Amino acid sequence: MDIGLRLNDVEQMKLESEPVEYEDKKDPKENLAKCGATAKEMDFLVERETYSGWIGQRVELNAMTSPQFIAWLERKLKQHGVTKLIPDRKVLALAYRRAYLAKRMNEEMARLFKSLRREAEAVAIPGDLVKRKRRKLRENPALPWDAAVAESLSVTASTK
């Protein structure tokens, strides 16, 4: 299925073209004709031969704005009868279970977050925390200060 950007699309959307050089010695129009380009499209894409190859114009998809691109793509897909795919029962069942799992994980993480936040708010802060961080950062000056704090957590947690 060819949904390529055609010259009439370029003209309707008033898209900007840019120069292109073809380094082939062979006329690129031959290949373009095999690919279904119209004579007008071939004349736009390949204007003339030069000493080093061929030159012409091209229009890239990024010449469109995002809304233009989406509208163009949806129009092309619709022209070719493309519709939304509905997977088979097995794939739908897997997707349903995956969605259920994600929903339940989010619910449990929210519950756990509330519980652990209360625990973190009540945790005792070591009295020598500043002194430890200064020593740690002298040992490793490239270490971010918050990473040094996090390291002290593993020491504190392992001494519980």
In short:
The chain is mainly alpha-helical. It has helices at residues 7-13, 29-34, 39-45, 66-79, 89-122, 129-139, 145-158; strands at residues 18-22, 48-50, 53-58. The protein has a three-stranded antiparallel β-sheet.
Topology (SSEs and partners):
Elements: H1 7-13, E1 18-22, H2 29-34, H3 39-45, E2 48-50, E3 53-58, H4 66-79, H5 89-122, H6 129-139, H7 145-158
Antiparallel strand pairs: 1-3, 2-3
Helix pairs in contact: 6-7
How would you portray this structure in words?
- The protein is mostly helical and 160 residues long.
- It folds into three domains: 7-79, no CATH class; 86-123; 126-160, no CATH class.
- Helices cover 58% and strands 9% of the residues.
- It contains seven helices and three strands, in the order αβααββαααα.
- It has helices at 7-13, 29-34, 39-45, 66-79, 89-122, 129-139, 145-158, and strands spanning 18-22, 48-50, 53-58.
- Strands 1-3-2 form a three-stranded antiparallel sheet.
- A hairpin with a 2-residue loop joins strand 2 and strand 3.
- The longest helix has 34 residues, at 89-122.
- It is elongated.
- The mean pLDDT is 90.
